[in-house]
Amino acid sequence: MTDITDAYFSNLIGRLETLKQVLAEPMVQAASVILDAARGDKRVYVFGTGHSHMLAEEVHYRAGGLAFTVPVLVGSAMLHEGAVISSVYERTQGLVRPMLERYGMQPGDVIIIASNSGVNAAPIEAADYAHEIGAKVIAITSIAYSAAIANGRRRLAEVADIVLDNGLPPGDAVLDLEGTGLRVGPVSTAVGVTVINAIFAEVASELSKSGDAPVYLSANMPGAAEINQKLVKKYRPRNPHL
């Protein structure tokens, strides 16, 4: 392993060890809100633009994942239809509401909004829309990043009901390339999926105590087809991506 590879692993592992302590209480709060939604047959939406949308895909139809999660996947705000234009969309006011309206969000639902920078129009509008509907908002964001670049703009950390601060520096990348002024090694995705999977694991554990944990199995595992088909049948009416 080279020095920089070792540095990346060490940096990421160190951050996760720190967050395990720092986020202990807000993760419990997030799990509690999601647990209440699950017991009320509500849905948990996951939304992010740019690379943050990968958290939404991470939880969707996932082996070991919960079936009541709904990814908010809007091509124009992701990367595959045009990375450059997606950066324009996520900063443009008024685009998120019609995107979210197709999902039929209801009072008592939860939306997890991932935005590392935490100041773009899209995540802020998503939080506002959810509150109008009567849904709870959980944010995964960097407070340090948004504080550094807000310049008077509203911040996701200020409008969410529960904030999971990923503790990342402005710009996301954590390793300096000596003599270049450049930084490499972004970690927001790795941190984000770890946090969200840990929370969902806690929720699943609590639901399993009453024998009602709607967890997908890997398609190659024995009995997976029957279990997954049953879950898809139940949750497809409110998940357009199943």
From TrEMBL:
GO BP terms, alphabetized: carbohydrate derivative metabolic process
Organism annotation: Rhizobium sophoriradicis
Domain (SIS): residue spans on this chain: 30-209
GO molecular function, one term: carbohydrate derivative binding
Cited InterPro entries: RpiR-like_SIS, SIS_dom, SIS_dom_sf, SIS_GmhA/DiaA_subfam
Pfam families the record matches: SIS_2
Name of the molecule in the record: SIS domain-containing protein
